[in-house]
Design goal:
169 residues; globular
């Protein structure tokens, strides 16, 4: 039974893993000063920072180089996974709001403000999130205004096309 449980474990649905990545994203993008607009973009960033090879692929996508068939498949997988992550991310954000670590505000979408919390400060000072923070900062340096961009614009900048256009072909 334990082997079966281990085989069925999905890291992306591990709430601790997702929470750590979300906190790193919010901290690196200085969401304690201004809110992160449209929480759905967190799914895209999450997919790239969860794996070093995805960060390398992210850089290739931004360079606009021609992708082979396997890389197109990988881009589509990352895109689809980012959409699937939204439900888990939303649950984690609601939990973090109840713990008074973030404030959620509903405009056209849900915006996220990171609250200054002593336990969060300790986590950041301990250096537990340094590699994730570095990854998010590199994304921030490559994509201007990532915190405030519309989700469609972010998708176009990263994947180089409109979602309907690409998946329709």
């Amino acid at each position: 039974m334990n082997n079966k449980k281990r085989m069925m474990f999905i890291l992306e649905e591990d709430y601790c893993f997702v929470t750590i990545k979300i906190l790193a994203i919010l901290k690196a993008l200085e969401c304690d000063k201004k809110p992160f607009e449209d929480f759905r973009k967190i799914g895209i960033i999450f997919e790239f920072i969860k794996d070093d090879s995805n960060m390398i692929f992210f850089n290739k996508l931004l360079m606009g180089k021609e992708l082979d068939i396997f890389e197109n498949e990988r881009a589509m997988k990352i895109f689809c996974d980012s959409k699937l992550d939204i439900a888990v991310i939303k649950r984690v954000l609601f939990f973090l709001e109840k713990q008074e670590m973030v404030r959620l505000s509903k405009n056209k979408s849900i915006d996220v403000l990171l609250l200054n919390d002593n336990s969060l400060t300790e986590i950041f000072k301990a250096g537990l999130l340094d590699s994730d923070l570095a990854k998010v900062l590199s994304i921030k340096n490559l994509i201007n205004r990532v915190r405030t961009l519309k989700i469609e614009t972010l998708q176009t900048k990263i994947f180089g096309y409109n979602e309907v256009e690409k998946w329709g072909n």
